[in-house]
Amino acid sequence: MSSITTYLRGSDTERLDPYPVKILKRVDRPTIRINEEKIQRADEREAGFNKYRRGEFGNDPKAKNTTHPLSDVLQNMQGLLRKSADGDVLVNLTPQSDDPEKITCHIKETAYFFRADLVGVCKLPPYAVYRYSNPTGDPIELNHKYAIAILVDQDWKTSEASTGDDWISTSMAYRSYTASGFIACMLADYIRRLGYPARAHMQGNNQIVIPPVLLWAGLGEMSRIGGALVNPFLGPRFKAAVVTTDLPLVPDRPIDFGLQDFCAKCKKCARECPSGAISSGDKIFRNGYETWPMDVKKCTIYRRANKKGVGCGVCINVCPWNKPYTPFHRSVRWTMRNIPLLRNFAVWADDIMGYGKPKRQNQWWMDLKVADGEK
């Protein structure tokens, strides 16, 4: 076999990540309890939006959900990307090194070269693989050993100017879905050109449930926002795509930055949720996961039939971890991570300083007009 000329830095990872992930506390297991033996592999057809499309939430036939041209553009691009999710392996090329640590460093740097915001690696949990696909119901068999998770910021500038459930909300989500999917498709293609199988998983073309992968890859902790993770640098203001592969990699470890205690005290997302879908109560144990419960039906109906805009991301906007990466906010994050007694004060200060309220003077997008009183 011939060899591809690949720059592998080796064990020097000091400059790998754009955020200081080395300062985070690493733990052996995620900070929520997970009983792998109790987890039933999910059926993708049972996701909230898929149930809504089938009319299982008692949808109001008069409720018309208009998209925004920006989100339409992004969704169209996603449709093109899905064709590149998988492909043949080119077996005539191999990396220069067979050291998993060097290969892992190189793959992370490649993802950052493709403009990822954060990257993590884990072994692919078998229970994270969907059991059946949507809409066909075909069984899914995916036996790759590793998962590479890619996060892309939804953009602080836009988030700061938005209510979270206005016209730009879905476009922010699809900006990150499309960008992370673009990166995942290129990274999977690159790995296949190194001689290893790889598949990209993105919104609308997933064969896996994303949150468990992010947990094990050390990219966040599970939050009160049902099923969503919070990252210590981006907060919940991101979307993710994943590449699964058999390329030998070194997994990262889960992180603990105090979010379970913080979310237990904060409850701001539950207070501000326009649909009342987020619980202000305690965690429950469901399908092998210890999580805060969420009313998926309420959340989905509001997002699909929103009268004020399109979609919803209020919980993301109001979260105290949703901040820009400035020296001031870095110091606040340090306090929230390391001084539990000050977490209640941090939530109080977040309200006093008006975070989560839109700065409309910074709005750059164009809202839509409602024709004939309907959307």
Give me a quick take on this structure:
The N terminus is likely disordered.
Structural description of this entry:
- The structure is a single chain.
- With 375 residues, this protein is an alpha+beta fold.
- The protein has one domain.
- The chain contains 12 helices and 10 strands.
Q: Biggest sheet: strands, sense, closure?
A: 4 strands, antiparallel
Please tally the β strands and state the result.
10
Overall form: globular
Query: How far do the termini sit from each other?
Result: 59 Å
* Average pLDDT number: 90
Radius of gyration: 21 Å
What percent of residues are in strands? Answer: 5-15%
Which key terms come to mind for this protein?
single chain; 375 residues; alpha+beta; 4-stranded antiparallel β-sheet; 12 helices; 32% helix; disordered N terminus
